[in-house]
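PT: before anyone asks, these are the final sequences, not the draft ones from last week. 550 residues across everything. Please model them as a single complex and drop the result in this thread when it's through.
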Amino acid sequence: MIFLWCCPIVGGMAIIEVRDLGKRYGPKIAVDAVSFEVAEGEIFGILGPNGAGKTTTVECVAGLRKADRGSVSVLGRAPADVRSAIGVQLQSSELPERIRVSEALSLFSSFYPTPADWSARLGLSAHLKAEFGQLSGGLKQRLSIALALIGSPRVAILDELTTGLDPQARRDTWSVIEEVRSAGVTIVLVTHFMEEAERLCDRVAVFRDGRIAALDTPSGLVSRVDGSTRVRFVPSVALDVTLLEALPEVTGVSSVGEQIVVSGSENLVHAVTSLLARKQIVARQLRVDQVSLDDAYVELTGGSGAEDH
Amino acid sequence: MLKIIEVEARLFVRDRLNSLFSLLFPSLLLLVLGAVPALRTPAPEFGGLRFIDGYMSSLVVLTLVFIGLQRLPAVVATYREKGVLRRLSTTPMHPARLLVGQLVVNFAAAILSVLLTILVGYVVFGVDLPHHPLGLACAVVLGGAGTFALGLVIAALAPNARTAGGWATVVFMLLMFFGGVYLPRFMLPSVVQAIGSYTPPGVEALQQAWLGSAPDWRHLAIMGLVSLVAGTVAARTFRWG
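LR: through. Structure below.
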């Protein structure tokens, strides 16, 4: 199984298939020609600025919306036909104000043939008697996750899973998600948090203007960014920068006062340090910066301006 | 389905103020009116009966329109606005079942309230039990169905819960007026009385089943027709998300 998570889909193993999906609301194109596959057991991330088509796409996968164009299949069938195999956590959906946590859990468990109780694992045990309207945002979110998982789904679609959770609750939720995945559940995760995508997702689709701008592993996305690694140092003796520029791993060199900044590909550090060693130069104040998924995301989605779309 | 009804019933009861009002207010109103001597003395303008005898059917109207127009549309429109219906759309259970649960619970509350009113009238004031119990049952069921269906049409067409509440209140007032709740029917012009026979929940059929020999089948048929038409409109136009 392991190799499936980190490699492109092997034929026939896709549990979710989206082909050429298109959806418009009036004149506005929400999603255009989106295609992807999700392998069984994978955690598939969907990233992108607001209005990039993430939610519309997952709503089509969840069978909540009909696409104008293209096809969606889950477990080889139309999503609406396999509802009991799909657990969904929606971005903004509430429960009746006065329903108790325990009542919501038992109500939702009555909809499914083989219910599973994640409430204790999600830290809801102390709040079973509380009414929904009295719960904090974080507890509402955790209840929502528990309800998404209550039907022992084979596919869980989680939209903005940890929005509104404090950092500790967020980490706890991540470990729940890892636990859910190790139970064999395939997960589609819509998120705003790069840290979350980096930690959890096997592959990530970055959406921009209704299309997939990039689809890769988190580290694959990072390596797409030019000059993904940056090395800064102050050489012990003056160094001819053209020597650095001649290295194949280097894409750019600049100097700020005594400090030299070299950017380049992943193997940059090794290339630079061996050059310095050959020249018997000591690199002082050596610092290595790695481009993060954050940086890659900003580059792929065209900077912060894309937030307004 | 039973589970949904159970949960909806719990939610209904938990909303203390509204559930007590639905169940007890018509009976309390009867007790208050009956405490006025003039209203429990037979008089020629009441057709030789007491005021409270003739007012029983209007109390049933009050019960049905309060639950059908003040409770039902508000709850249903709020369920939609808060995304409760959308949340259920992702489960194997169709959200329509939640509405069925709402209807069942509200209908049960209406029937309990009516039974309580009959009991209080009979025990405290010696009001006749309905002369034609089956006719009254039909009039309550069909009239209730018509009123609830109107409530659902409002919930279906209103853009949000607030607007639904506003529209429902207007209809609520009108139906209370035509049903002789504000002013007893004998004080209303005959045109208004005639209209009241055909507006849900159909006070004339209730009145005839209670005090007369049997309800006019045409009045009952009209209520059935209203339920059917309004129910169809509600089902056709309802938005789940």
